[in-house]
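Q: A reviewer asked whether we had any structural model of the full assembly, not just the individual parts. We don't, so I'm hoping you can provide one. Inputs are below.
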Amino acid sequence: MAHIVSGDSGVHDVVEALRRGDVVGFPTETVYGLAADIRNEAALQRIFSVKGRPTSHPLIVHIADFDQLHDLAVGVSPACLALLEICWPGPLTVVVSAAPHVSRVCTGGRDSVAVRLPAHPLAQMVIRELGAPVAAPSANRFGHVSPTSALHVANDLGDDITLVLDGGPCAVGVESSIVDFSVTPPEILRPGSITAEEIRAILSHHGTDLSTSSHGPSRAPGMMDRHYAPRARLVLHEAGDPLPVDGAPILRFDTNLVDAARHLYERLRELDARNIPLAHVVLPTPSGLGFALRDRLSKAAAGL
Ligand code: TXA
Ligand code: MG
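A: Here is a predicted structure for the entire assembly that you could use as a starting point for your response.
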């Protein structure tokens, strides 16, 4: 099983491993990532094989300062920069045109690249000490529940990785919001804790719209219907609907949405740990952070 390390010496161990071309688990404020040095194509390929993820499904590049954005991307619009000035560091990813030197292994063969500056101090320390961005998808097997603790990563990926840097439980708990600036108007590909309403308000100051399809399900490439899925079958209910009395557990995600997001994946994992075959889920209403929760829960509940 992967070794869990922490603190400054943990950061140092993880950076040494990245320099050797290893892939490692590392914390972000959203979910734990499976990181590789963006300059090392063999390491990038290893991310896909460890996750069992199709190679056409692009990875998010994590950076520690704006200079790294300007190195990775070309033609970033003033509206996009204004949004990033407000939301970074934080749980927001933007898709922008990739500079020619950015590895197409990382972008899944595309000429656009997804970039994010995470708020977690240990994530920033790793990227700074390495001196280069790291590509990192969520550190779970493809299609399964995302990890929000170092132990989740070690349990999921077992012997396929050697190190996980422990940064404590993730504060946000759902993956970053993704806004695609390679299309006009920009469009939300995946809802997250930075909401469509917030993004629209910032962009409107710069005369930029946000595509209205943004309230639908995730449209990021490779995000199939079933994703974030536990083994347990989930039956979804709207708040206020009558709930069946069949003895199956009822998970409510309709009250404190910040807490609901923070504990979402832990609660789904717990169902499997307790071998629970079926659970009822009460959804939040579709507004603000409720969109991200509904998106993840409907994908977790989708039939095989
Ligand atoms: O919060 C997060 O974003 C976490 C943490 C680790 O930072 N990462 C994450 O990565 O969720 P992943 O690989 O599980 O999801 C990346 C998403 C995918 O749905 C992918 O399709 C989309 O980002 N994506 C990446 N590059 C893209 C591109 N060039 N164009 C469109 N979508 C892209
Ligand atoms: Mg993922």
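A: Points you may want to mention in the reply: The radius of gyration is 19 Å. The chain has two domains: 3-204, 233-301.
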